[in-house]
Amino acid sequence: MTWSLSVALAERAYPIHIGTGLIGDRDLYQPHLSSSQVMIVTNETVGPLYRDAVLGALEGYQVAEVVLPDGEQFKTLEVWNRIFDALLQARFGRDCTLIALGGGVVGDMAGFAAACYQRGVGFIQVPTTLLAQVDSSVGGKTGINHPAGKNMIGAFHQPRAVIADTATLATLPQRELSAGLAEVIKYGLIRDDAFLSWLEAHMAELLARDPDAIAYVIRRSCEIKAEIVAADEHEAGQRALLNLGHTFGHAIETASGYGAWLHGEAVGVGMCLAADLSMRLGWMTDTDLARVRRLVTSAGLPTAAPADLTPEQFMEHMSVDKKIQDGRLRLVLMRYPGEALVTADIDPDLLYATLAVASE
Ligand SMILES: NC(=O)c1ccc[n+]([C@@H]2O[C@H](COP(=O)([O-])OP(=O)(O)OC[C@H]3O[C@@H](n4cnc5c(N)ncnc54)[C@H](O)[C@@H]3O)[C@@H](O)[C@H]2O)c1
Ligand SMILES: O=C(O)C(=O)C[C@@H](O)[C@H](O)[C@H](O)COP(=O)(O)O
Ligand SMILES: [Zn+2]
């Protein structure tokens, strides 16, 4: 069974295909290739597993490949530049197409390279992690990290298509599966209490990789993300809700120097901290907070920040958050599980109180 949905962005609308065995389906790629020149951007883990399937779909095309080192710590300017070296070495022109084959790190870097190469070329997302299939391959946020902050250098550049082959998840390590579930939980918390209840009831099936359960959460997550992106492509408003847990989570990732914490793990902790602060503000109840923490735990994710990250260090890292306006920190918090909001109206003492218990 294949589901296809569309990200409704007028002349830049694009399909998201979700199903098993899609990675080798020539018909899904062909309409989105601008010429015979195709560059596969992958990493040293995913390339050996799935490049042949992609190559099978591209017979007759002039295909080149660039293989990046694997890990969040390599989402850097220096490593990103290797994509341009490869494109120039292959003498690829403005009508080439990039294929991002891998998780969110490869997708963000390849997408940003596509945004910049010769001032912009097309790219196709072929996400191979749960996190990338439910979140990072959709919506056109691309970029790289800076030592001082996550995703600090980047561009909005939408893919031409997303081809999410759920069969690729068979080789994904369990820790990475859990990391992907953090972003899935996020969608429930920001706008779908029924989905949240469904996740509570089916977490064991998801962790056991039941194919129907996995396909359902990818589809529902992509539906929610596609709807939000279509309404607010450049994050002028409601798209910021997709950042629930990320101001705290990005601080954890940056403080740890990238890589020790998976993005999804940091976001899981971040959502617990957002729930804690929402409770201190009198919005959520302690029952709601316990529910959020229980769900995050049930997905195999941590709920506590590193013990050596002080509130002052947290604040320092959070002070470069991209949602800051007029020098004021804005956070995504929750009125209750299933309804999030963005607010700058944050009592510093309550925020400090949340950060002071972050590692508990
Ligand atoms: N652009 C966005 O909207 C967006 C959204 C969420 C996250 N992100 C970014 O995505 C990144 C996290 O993505 P991620 O969680 O996919 O991490 P990742 O890209 O590092 O992939 C996780 C690990 O799984 C391996 N892997 C990938 N697919 C595999 C497979 N099928 N089988 C076996 N191993 C496989 C990778 O090599 C890597 O070691 C972060 O940099 C985050 O900032 C971006
Ligand atoms: O697509 C979005 O918008 C998101 O915020 C999705 C997030 O899960 C993702 O981690 C994103 O890269 C964070 O964006 P940033 O602007 O805070 O770097
Ligand atoms: Zn994220």
Automatic annotation (TrEMBL):
Keywords: Amino-acid biosynthesis, Aromatic amino acid biosynthesis, Cobalt, Cytoplasm, Lyase, Metal-binding, NAD, Nucleotide-binding, Zinc. One of its GO terms (biological process) is amino acid biosynthetic process. Pathway: Metabolic intermediate biosynthesis; chorismate biosynthesis; chorismate from D-erythrose 4-phosphate and phosphoenolpyruvate: step 2/7. It holds the Pfam family DHQ_synthase. It catalyses: 7-phospho-2-dehydro-3-deoxy-D-arabino-heptonate = 3-dehydroquinate + phosphate. NAD(+) binds at residues 70-75, 104-108, 128-129, 141, 150, 168-171. Residues 66-178 form the 3-dehydroquinate synthase N-terminal domain. Residues 180-323 form the 3-dehydroquinate synthase C-terminal domain. GO terms for molecular function: 3-dehydroquinate synthase activity; metal ion binding; nucleotide binding. Its main location: cytoplasm. Binds 1 divalent metal cation per subunit. Can use either Co(2+) or Zn(2+). It is found in: Cytoplasm. Coiled coil: none annotated. Its EC number is 4.2.3.4. The keyword Protein biosynthesis does not apply. NCBIfam families: aroB. Catalyzes the conversion of 3-deoxy-D-arabino-heptulosonate 7-phosphate (DAHP) to dehydroquinate (DHQ). This is 3-dehydroquinate synthase. The lineage of its organism: Bacteria, Pseudomonadati, Pseudomonadota, Gammaproteobacteria, Chromatiales. The gene is aroB.
